[in-house]
Amino acid sequence: MKTINAKTITQAVKKLFLKVNFMLPADVTKKLKFAYAAESLSIPKKILKQILENARISNLENIPICQDTGVSFVFLEIGQGVCIKGGSLKDAVNKGVKLAYTGGYLRKSIVSDPLERKNTNDNTPCVIHTEITSGDKIKISVLAKGGGSENVSVIKNFSPAADISEIKKFVVDTVKQAGANACPPLVIGIGIGGTFDTVGLIAKKALFRNLLSFNKNKRYSELESELLDEINKTGLGPMALGGKTTALSVLIETAPCHITSLPVAVNLQCHALRRGSIIL
Question: Cβ contacts of residue 21 below 8 Å, gap of 6+?
């Protein structure tokens, strides 16, 4: 059995959150460059240019891509052959978040109680999702998710008899209603299936897919393309000020569900898709 020290996990989490807050992933940057090249209107083209320049400066000078450094999500895929020693896994992960946000001078956005609104001053507790896998490794994936896009994300339970057009309308209407609040151009994670408590997680996990990829199932890959086309035809554009690119990518993931259920979750993500992974 492989042994991994809790301190190693702490340092990995710290490193990841510092990296993702200062550097956009290559696939996101590539999609933004495609959008910039395709745009003909002056205002949206200028906005896209500013987004790309902001990302360049952030990476060069190690300053946050966005002032909202978000909720800290940590996804752990833990191999059955791994033994964690030297402390609690939960504590190790939260310590990594704390070190990144305090040492990296990242904005602390978490309050300890939803009604009292007292800031914890270190962006903890983070949100941890764990999955037991085969093997003797731990894969750590992190997402710094801003409040603006998270607040306008939606879950709806459809009848299993619902037509696909109803689901498409729900997704497009969600984007329209969000308007500028989610800071488009967007990356849209969609979960279909599962249950009320899992479909949102499926949608969020979809955000980790490469933006240049398509769902392996032809039905869903076609739906991704159709939705992206319909969303971009709304003309909302960058920062909802008009233009060709309202969304950079639509990413659909699915899960089995009950015969009476058809839950759908739309997790909107702003253009600053701050995510990254490491394998220990």
Answer: 64, 65, 69, 100, 104, 106, 144, 274
Structure tokens at 117: 């609104």
Q: Where are the beta strands (DSSP E) in the chain?
A: 2-5, 71-79, 82-85, 127-133, 138-145, 154-158, 186-194, 247-257, 262-269, 274-279
Record the pTM.
Answer: 0.96
The verdict on residue 172 lying in a domain is yes
Does one domain contain both 250 and 205?
yes
The string of pLDDT tens digits covering residues 111-146 is: 999 999 999 999 999 999 999 999 999 999 999 999
Query: Crossing angle for the helix pair 42-61 and 26-38, nearest 10 degrees?
Result: 150
Q: What one-letter code names the amino acid at 128?
A: I
Tokens linked to 18: 């510092």
Q: Which of 158, 17, 6 is nearest to 78 (CA)?
A: 6
Residues 10 and 93 sit within 8 Å (Cβ to Cβ): yes
Confidence of residue 155 (pLDDT cuts 50, 70, 90): very high
Quick check: is 124 in a domain? yes
pLDDT tens digits for 68-92?
Answer: 999 999 999 999 999 999 999 999 9
Phi/psi for 76 (5° steps) reads -115, 120
Domain count, the chain: 2
Nearest partner of 72 among 56, 54, 90, judged by Cα: 90
pLDDT tens digits, one per residue of 232-252: 999 999 999 999 999 999 999
Distance CA 72, CA 275 (A): 10
Q: What average pLDDT does this structure show over 150-167?
A: 97
Domain with 106, as residue range(s), is 2-22+65-145
Please give the structure tokens belonging to residue 16: 């990841």
Q: Are residue 133 and residue 202 in the same domain, yes or no?
A: no
270, 180 contact by CB (below 8 A)? no
Q: Within this chain, do residues 96 and 205 fall inside the same structural domain, yes or no?
A: no
